[in-house]
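DATA SHEET
Item: assembly model
Revision: 1
Owner: S.N.
Input lines:
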Amino acid sequence: MERVAVGLLGLGTVGAGVAKLLTERSDLIARRSGRVIDLKHAVVRDLAKKRSLTFDSRKLSDNPRLVVDDPEIKVVIETMGGIEPTLGLVMDSLANGKDVVTANKALLAEHGCEIFAQARKYGRAVAFEASVGGGIPIIQALEVGLAANRVTSLAAIVNGTCNYILSKMTQEGLPYSLALKQAQELGFAEADPTLDVDGTDTAHKLAILAQLSFGATVTTKQIPREGIDRLQPADITYAGELGYVVKLLALAKSAGEGLELRVAPTLVKRGTPLAEVRGPYNAVRVVGDAVGDTLFYGRGAGEFPTASAVVGDVIDVVVGRAALTFKALNLWSTDAPTIQLASPDAVRSRYYLRFSIADRPGVLATLAKALGGHGISIASVIQHEPADGSDGHVPLVIMTHHAIEASLKSALAEIDALDVVRRPSVCLGVED
Amino acid sequence: MERVAVGLLGLGTVGAGVAKLLTERSDLIARRSGRVIDLKHAVVRDLAKKRSLTFDSRKLSDNPRLVVDDPEIKVVIETMGGIEPTLGLVMDSLANGKDVVTANKALLAEHGCEIFAQARKYGRAVAFEASVGGGIPIIQALEVGLAANRVTSLAAIVNGTCNYILSKMTQEGLPYSLALKQAQELGFAEADPTLDVDGTDTAHKLAILAQLSFGATVTTKQIPREGIDRLQPADITYAGELGYVVKLLALAKSAGEGLELRVAPTLVKRGTPLAEVRGPYNAVRVVGDAVGDTLFYGRGAGEFPTASAVVGDVIDVVVGRAALTFKALNLWSTDAPTIQLASPDAVRSRYYLRFSIADRPGVLATLAKALGGHGISIASVIQHEPADGSDGHVPLVIMTHHAIEASLKSALAEIDALDVVRRPSVCLGVED
């Protein structure tokens, strides 16, 4: 059987999982790929660091050039993350005639064009199943399984940390800070969770999904995004009363005005598959014009789920399929037609609004009139009797019918200027 | 751009969808496959039949040899269904050097070995994404995306007719016969629904999933199966009280005693993704030893969802990927090691039991003792006060902890022989 030498950059959580799968189940992998895959070298930043695996020290190095410049190594597996020095190592690996398997969503979201151009120049392939949705084979589904479809919309839960925190807040009524603390203690959140909870990580993944589904080359900066870090437990509670759960969604929708993209905490109707995605799980809902709606669900992070996707890619590369897919799809290409992005103001959605209003006669009428004046129609209202110890303000929750974001913003500006309303008002989108 | 001629056998619901996609979106397909796909001929049984599409009559024929024996045609798309004369046409197409794309689950389940041997003999590929789960790319996920995994278990809702009927029975409390009638009126069930409702269709699909996931070559006859046609509304109601919904599941599980396979109405815990699969939707839950649990959800039938999978396969074939996958996987091979099937008696599961017992003191104790005597432990019990007009018998529902099927059968035989119990008792498996 043919032997294929591969090199591994990074031996953190995902890298260690990849090394374990490649060595511990070499028989299975050989049977499915028709090749013996030989992990020739792994490169780490700090040789002294304690690791969860025993790795032959002769194969371990802190010099990435041992992998990048080794002519025997045919596939470079990049699980080190980050942009620098990763980008340079990936570019050099491609220039040296190696295929690249990467789990690095930030790298693709920010430098997809350069990396894919380099791969095309040197006739190599880049595989990146692990970059979105951990072990869920969503990249492959969009590239191959749904190839007969035009994707019309996509809604994705692709950050396990946020979904875990939101599930905790929903199920146990915890405030954000406490739910985050529990997530950190259990290893579902990093010590510095900023890029997860502020929506940046989700936006990276949305940039990749938008490329695959709509051929749209966007940088993270072009995606309006809001995280979960300012979400109030009250809104999760009211959403529940209305029959919804709050999820951090990556949304992409092909509309008349162009492609709508956004990352935001969003109300999702209970009883739909997306609403039932709990804890650290991920899911991607894809609507295609032929297939209708589909959903792909699984563990979005972690050592073995992510390594499952990486090793699946390695098999795909050595079998030769990845090269065919890479060539057929022409992703992140400068030749591709530019996809027009819709202005965020043009987005049409239903909205959940929460105001803190003075407990006085006529206030509800004033707000309803302000909304109506901007063409926004009310679907339902919750106003409870004031709680004991209320400071003269009570919460008013309004669910709207479909409205244009620009109209909504004008209405909210008008309402927030009223002296019977205590700012800031809360506004969340709704996915039915 | 290279042209590839393809022929279509069958122009029923799925075939018509395929013809429409191939002609109406030839640009998209050409872009994604790098070839112009030319539907050269379509073959129908009855030329006089009215169809939902306008099809160039010069390309339409009732002679399948026009497709099977045309040297210009490179890919034969089989959407005619059935075993005869389909099997012969598929075998001849392969012998004539054509790749085959098929949506025919019965054909693969019963004749997979012959067809795949023929394809190997002539160096061709067979692609069959549409045979299970309609538009859901589940075959590809098992073949490629999850290739780094050993699948440990699989639970699938793969018959839209049954799921539609069960959803109606659950949501509206309809009896089976009325729910079936509504499904027929809406086109979700055939005039003769036997193969759907008795579990045969689900068993065909399970045979295919078992081949892909476990390398097990099984015929439908080897799969114990039970349909939904004898399911009582009462059991759906009691399942609901216990927090479960009833789904017709295809189950496969790798256990110590061998591979467990079965098709049966099964209680699924509410709030899990599988329980929320409603109406005509399908879903396949796959647990892999690296990836953990995953779920693939979408429309399991219908013109365009199924055609989406067929055309996806056509693209996969002409790009050349399907040939690589076909060769790497060696499915339905006589060289493959035989997979031991577990005896149904050895299956370990939780069970839902419903007895109709005489409304007399001591009967619950008698039944509990009989179960305990066979090592079956009770998890929960429902016994309501007798309804007005009761005939002296009341329903008793028992949910067990995990038990061996053989013990359960002995206990049930003992209980059914008691004169305080009116037969037959109901027994359904539980998936948590």
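QC remark: Chain B touches chain A through 58 residues (CB under 8 Å).
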